[in-house]
Each structure stands twice: as structure tokens, then as C-alpha cells.
Amino acid sequence: MRFVLLTALAAALPLLTPATPRCGAAMPEVLFVLDSSGSMSEDAGGQRKIDAAKQVMHDITPALPEEVLVGLVAYGHRRPGDCTDIEVLMPAGSSDRQGLLSQVDRLEPRGKTPITSAVLTAAGMLKGKDAVTSIVLVSDGVETCAGDPCRVVRELKSTGCKFVLHAVGFAVDAAAAKQLGCLAKAGGGKYFAAADGDALLAALNAVSQEVAEDVEQAKIQTVAGGTGLGKLRLAMPKGAQESLRYVEIARASDGKVVKTITNLQADDTHPLLSGEYRVTAGFATPNNGESTRTELGVFTIATQQTRDLELGSIAFNLPESLASANNWNDRLHVETVVVKDSGTGAVAATVSSNGNGYYTFKDKPLLPGVYDVELIYSASEEPSAVARRVVVKPGSKSTVTLDSGVRFVRPEQKISGWRVYRRPEQSADAAEDQGAAPERELVLQAQARPGIGASLRVDGLYYPYLLPAGTYDFEIDVVGMTEPLPAGEAVEIHAGELLRFETGL
Questions:
Q1: Do domains 4-220 and 229-310 have the same CATH topology?
Q2: CATH topology of domain 4-220
Q3: pLDDT per residue over 250-301, tens digit each?
Q4: Do 10 and 133 meet the contact criterion of CB atoms below 8 Å apart?
Q5: Which of 153, 209, 311, 478 is the most exposed place for a label (fewest CB within 10 A)?
Q6: Do 154 and 187 form a contact (C-beta atoms < 8 A)?
């Protein structure tokens, strides 16, 4: 079992049942995700909250059973006002506890409290895990990055992700206690209140004791003896298999490929010797292009048992006028579709058009989880996000509707490129942890710059580009000018609308 600690520790290793014997008992792991937001510089019981947390980490970490591997993630420790300030300081599964504590000692509170993204980052590391993961979140305040962590936990639960979430409120007010309590309830765990360092230590000691008990339980679990045949059942929503050229099954111990499945079915079972196997999917590329590979995970096959690997999928709903327009200039010119895990940013699928586009918007089979979808256009090397936090459930199809965007009208002046910036939504809860909130930065959503000088292929600037509904600023590069020109501010793009935009040049 893997244990994740969102600023803390984890617990609750379930007993194996006769229906799911394993070839070995997984030991608990601990991943610390440490809150280092600006408010952690405040006083709690006569010392700064961050100093109390560091002291508790020094007490708890060495006391963990030696079998427990550790990791460290921190947020808010580098940049004030940055909701993306989440960093893996030590990957999960490390035995270097002193190195972890050295990283903890370097933390200083500076930034915001992106609880939602922190939970997504943790969950993104749990895909394909057989054992239940207990997540314990310790926070000294509410979400400050306009997220909805309680909703995200419920969504993650709906994907079948195997975790229990406990929450610890460190010297928090009533609003934070309410939010953290909601998180714990949604995650099937408990909420703990800690007013100072001593209370924080007591709370984490209680959880770490459960970890120690789980280690002992793991040692005595019944394991499947001997060798023999088991089965891997690979299932996905009907039609999703069309995006795959193959699925490869290799022994985890030596990497030897024992089976390559090319005639894929939506639901099929494959006999294998008992053991651990790494499963990889190869996404098809048209015109006999090289397949892009995505690792689905390492799975245990037990004697006389069937291990289910049930995928979900993302489907795309596009207007017919964009998907198959007769006029070349009226079509979408998407070179690559990229699907990434919303929390970790790990690429889950990459599909290239390879001058054909047959597979571009075919259903994409994926491990259950939460994903972002990006497009790379022919006139831009940079990805453009068109859908965020798409929830994929096992055996289910999640449809992403792409029916809004922009198309620039060719101006009289020659232009060499443009950029579209999205204005983030404002939230009453998204205040700074300390001091006045700075002006919120615009987010680069899409851009086009197909070439320079004689090689400029200007047609690419005026193709349709998909954008989520929202408010945008436009910026134009005019040939002969050294600085970009603002062409539109606070431009509204509505769902179902392909905006034809006149630059005024």
C-alpha cells in the first residue's frame, strides 16, 4: 500500500480477502505534502506555524517503521501569489529520510494555499494502484486559488481512485474547519483540529501509530504461494480501442515483453503466469506513423485470479462545420492532441495527425482519473488548453464538447502572429494569504506564429482556433513593428460561438 501525506501522514491498510490474493504484501509509503503558504509565518502557541510543522516533521519522520518509504511535496514556498507553486522536493518511494528533513528545513512561507491542485497532484500518483491509499491533509487555512477541493475529492472518489482522505486543521478559523471537514467527509476519512505544535504532534502521532500497525499487518498477510496462471482483464468503453494500435505486457522484473495485443477488443481477458507486469498502450498514428507509448502501470497477477484493468475514455464533440469543412481554410488544423493528468502534468496520451488526422478526435482510452486536454496547431508549437479537469470514470465515456473559439479576420496590415490571453475568474475566497492581493496575471491560452519573412505562411493565422468559453485579451504582431499591439481587451467568447474577430488594422 502507498500512503500519501498532504503535509502529514497516512493510514489504513485493508486486510486481503480470499478473492484478491497477492504475490506479496505492499508496505505503506508516506508522501509529505507540506503547507508553506504565507500564513504559515503566523504565530501558533508561541512559535511560527512553519517552525512547529518542521519540528513535528523531525519528530515523526525518524519514528516511522523502517519499512516505510517517504517522499516530500511542498506548496507556497517559492513565489507569492502563484497558484502553481507546488513542487515535488523528493519523489515518493525514497528511503532518504535525512534528505527529506533537509528539504523541510529549507522551506519558508511565501505563497498561496492551492489545496485543490495539491490533492490532484497526490491522486495523480495513485493510478493503477491495487491497495487503498490514505491521504492526510494538514492545512492552516482555506483554499486560496479559486478551487473547490471538496468537489474535487468527490470527483476523484467517483473515478474509483483507491484512497481515504483525513484532514488536519492547524490553528484554523471556522470557515477553514468547515472546508477541511467537508474534505475529510468526501474522502471517507476523519477531521482533526490542532491549535498549536503540541496538538499537531499529537494528531500526527495518532496517524503514524496507524501506519506502524499497518506495517505489522502487512508482514503477516497471507500471500499467494507457488506459481500458476492468472488472468488480466483489459476493458474499456466500446469504440475506445480504435485509438490503440497495441497493448504491450512486459514482466516488471526484467522488462521482457511476454505479450503484444494487436487485435484489441473493448473487453478481453489474457492468461499470464502469476507475477507483476508492466502494461503499456500504443496510440495509433495514421499513415503508418510511429505509435506514441503510454505506460498504464504495474499490475499484480495472482494464481487462479483475474486482475481487472478497466479504463475509461474521453470522447470529443465538435461541430460538423469544423470537423469536416469542405473549405480547407475553414477546418481545424490540429497537429497533436495531448491529454495530461490534471495534478501531476504527466502525459497520458499523445495523438499526432501526421498529415491525416484520422485518429485526432477519436475516443481516447485512459486510466480513471482527472485530465486536461491540449491541442497543438499547425501554426503554433505551443499547446493550447481546451478542456481542464475532465473526470474519467472506469468503464465510462466522458464527452468533451469543443464548440467555441476564435477566428481572426485577415486585416489590411500584414501581421506575423497573435496571442490570446485568458482572464482568470475572480473569486472572493482567492485572497492572498498575507498582504494585499496583486493584480492577477493573464494566462496565455493560444498563439499562432507560422513563420517569418519570405517563409511566412499567413493562412495559418486565420484558421479556426478552439477556446473554452471565457473572457480574453488579444495581442497582435504587426510586420515592421518591434512591439505587439493590443487588439482586444475583455473579449467575451460564449459556449457554441466561433467568434470572427476584426483586429481594426
A1: no
A2: Rossmann fold (3.40.50)
A3: 999 999 999 999 999 999 999 999 999 999 999 999 998 999 999 999 998 9
A4: yes
A5: 209
A6: no
